[in-house]
Design brief:
Nucleotidyltransferase, domain 5; six-stranded mixed sheet; five-stranded mixed sheet; 44% helix; 24% strand
Length: 318
Amino acid sequence: MSRKLASIDLGTHTARLLVAEWDDASHNLLPIVRHRTYVHLGSAFQYTSGGVVLSMAATSRVVGILQAFKRPLHEYGVKTTIAIATGVIRQAQNRDDFLGVLREETGIDISVVSGEDEARLTATAVHHALDMGNKPHGVVDLGGGSTEFVVAENDQWWVRSLALGASVLTENYLKTDPPGQAAVSSLRKFVRQSLMNGLDRAPFPRVFSLVGTGGTIVTLGATLHGIPLKKLDPDHVNGLEITRGAIREFFAEMITLKQEERMRRYGLDGGRAGVFPAGVLLATEIMNFFSMDQLTVCFSDLLEGLLWEQVEDSEYAQ
């Protein structure tokens, strides 16, 4: 059996691929190649009388992305690929039809994972990447269509998934460039209420530290530390510390800029620059909710978690 394996995450804002190899000597997963492409499914999310649906027209661009992902799978001889869908796809009434078209066109079978499973897989990756110790800690995975929360203490985990993400919040609230103060205030009010309603029973008073993953938090950590965004990988990012005060100051500056100015000043690409204000606001409000003044950044996330689950359930790690 090949020791090369891959994971694909089809999310609200991005589609991502990780190809890695199991290494016996280090008893670890070694990344080989990563790809990330914007899919912008948040804008394909439509509200109808029957519920929320994804526009089937969006399948054509996703098919093209998945076909491109297949090239490195063949190039590196990957035999095991785990592909999942998250974010708005999880919420869509027509998700089976949507994923069925992708399967027919690409041969890639994509499974929908629950928010709770997404949180658990992300926390697994974080625990392999960082030494979290035994004290209670929180893990937050801030995505495009949802945010997953884990509170962990030893082997006991509490998990939640909320439909709060940088892409959907931008679509629903920040519709001008730059966003007006009234829109920002409305978004902040909505986020605070959603966190209070969704996380009211979490054991947060016992949390000693907070770890954040996802594109917004990784980009934010790199930007605040002056790391070029072209060098985003676990070696440069895992373990970075960012403070609530620094994020607040950054947000106050960024929110006054147009998208093109955000791209020029911070080195963001167009896909990230458009949703970055909503994502940073959400990150700040999450820290406020947890009453945490510091956040540890982790690049390793759901993609690594999927591979670790595969490895631990197979002969690789025996």
